[in-house]
């Protein structure tokens, strides 16, 4: 047996000397030096949707798709070219948000359409888009969608 090992003649108690052959244990986890935060983390999927050498509009096509669809809906509402333009325009705006939720779900990288985590973006875009479409279908006069229990709730609260 060599010197310093348990059971050696020089160390009859079997205790290993902390200074022989080993580094002294100074503690557990060493904390990094505190630093100043200078930037925020990019959201999941917040990278480019096209290669870096593509022009800027091609790199941000998911966001542009959603913006063009929403802009078309606002244009229809603003110009009022036909009798149900408000309803159709609002459905287009809701469909734009639902498209954003679908793109956020299926594409690995959506550029600036990624604002928060993938799950939060999908829920936010989906719920808001669904509510806008639902309200556009139920708007008076002459709703395209009637939900009977909502009419009963309205009558109970008003009367």
TrEMBL record:
Transmembrane regions listed in the UniProt entry: 61-79, 85-107, 119-139
Record has Membrane as a keyword: yes
Instruction: Give the species this sequence originates from.
Output: Streptomyces sp. R44
From the Swiss-Prot or TrEMBL record, give the protein name: DUF3017 domain-containing protein
Record keywords, A-Z: Membrane, Transmembrane, Transmembrane helix
Q: Where is this region: Disordered?
A: 1-56
List the taxonomic lineage. Bacteria, Bacillati, Actinomycetota, Actinomycetes, Kitasatosporales
């Amino acid at each position: 047996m060599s010197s310093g090992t348990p059971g050696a003649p020089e160390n009859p108690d079997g205790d290993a000397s902390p200074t022989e052959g080993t580094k002294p244990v100074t503690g557990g986890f060493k904390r990094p030096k505190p630093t100043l935060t200078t930037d925020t983390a990019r959201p999941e999927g917040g990278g480019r949707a096209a290669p870096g050498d593509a022009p800027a509009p091609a790199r941000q096509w998911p966001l542009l798709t959603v913006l063009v669809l929403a802009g078309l809906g606002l244009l229809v509402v603003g110009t009022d070219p036909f009798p149900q333009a408000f309803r159709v325009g609002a459905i287009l705006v809701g469909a734009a948000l639902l498209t954003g939720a679908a793109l956020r779900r299926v594409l690995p990288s959506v550029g600036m359409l990624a604002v928060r985590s993938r799950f939060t973006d999908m829920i936010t875009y989906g719920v808001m888009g669904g509510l806008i479409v639902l309200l556009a279908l139920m708007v008076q006069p002459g709703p395209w969608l009637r939900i009977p229990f909502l009419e009963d709730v309205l009558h109970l609260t008003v009367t």
